[in-house]
């Protein structure tokens, strides 16, 4: 059970009147980071090899499908993931500098986004780019 007296003290001592420009910049960089990741997924869709259906093998039209990574789109993908990592790190840095009160919280979605983007960068750099 929560102590209502402690909760009211936190509310009484709260002098902030809503989101200031720092909080709004955290929200904006968070949104830009996720949009950057979504754009990277578009580049991934364009860069990856096409799936070869069984029907194409049956009709012997395998040559009409691209079976290797597209170099130009793969480079776009790699640099977009780097940009996504940079924006996410900036947002995390602003968030960590801002957290001073008990009521402030860390945006864990940024940590997840950074982990996924770094893993994708490492995969593209070690597995896909050496083929070119």
Please outline the helices and strands.
Elements: H1 4-13, H2 21-47, H3 54-59, H4 71-98, H5 108-128
Helix pairs in contact: 2-4, 4-5
Concise overview:
The protein contains five helices and no strands. With 132 residues, the protein is mostly helical. It starts with a helix and ends with a helix.
What does this structure look like?
It is a single chain. It is built from five helices and no strands. The chain starts with a helix and ends with a helix. The chain has 132 residues and is mostly helical. The chain has helices at 4-13, 21-47, 54-59, 71-98, 108-128. The protein is 70% helix and 0% strand. The chain has one domain. Keywords: Membrane, Transmembrane, Transmembrane helix. The chain crosses the membrane at residues 21-44, 76-96, 108-126.
Instruction: Count all strands and give the number.
Output: 0
Structural class: mainly alpha
Give the ordered list of helices and strands: HHHHH
Uncertain residue segments: none
> Mind summarizing the main beta sheet?
none
Keywords: Membrane, Transmembrane, Transmembrane helix
Transmembrane segments: 21-44, 76-96, 108-126
């Amino acid at each position: 059970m929560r102590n209502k007296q402690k909760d009211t003290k936190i509310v009484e001592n709260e002098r902030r009147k809503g989101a200031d420009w720092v909080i709004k910049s955290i929200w904006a960089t968070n949104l830009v980071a996720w949009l950057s990741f979504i754009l990277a997924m578009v580049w991934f869709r364009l860069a990856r090899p096409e799936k070869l259906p069984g029907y194409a093998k049956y009709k012997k039209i395998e040559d009409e499908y691209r079976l290797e990574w597209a170099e130009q789109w793969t480079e776009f993908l790699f640099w977009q993931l780097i940009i996504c990592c940079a924006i996410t790190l900036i947002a995390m840095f602003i968030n960590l500098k801002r957290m001073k009160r008990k009521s402030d919280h860390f945006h864990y979605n940024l940590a997840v986004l950074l982990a996924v983007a770094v893993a994708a960068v490492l995969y593209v750099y070690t597995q896909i780019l050496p083929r070119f």
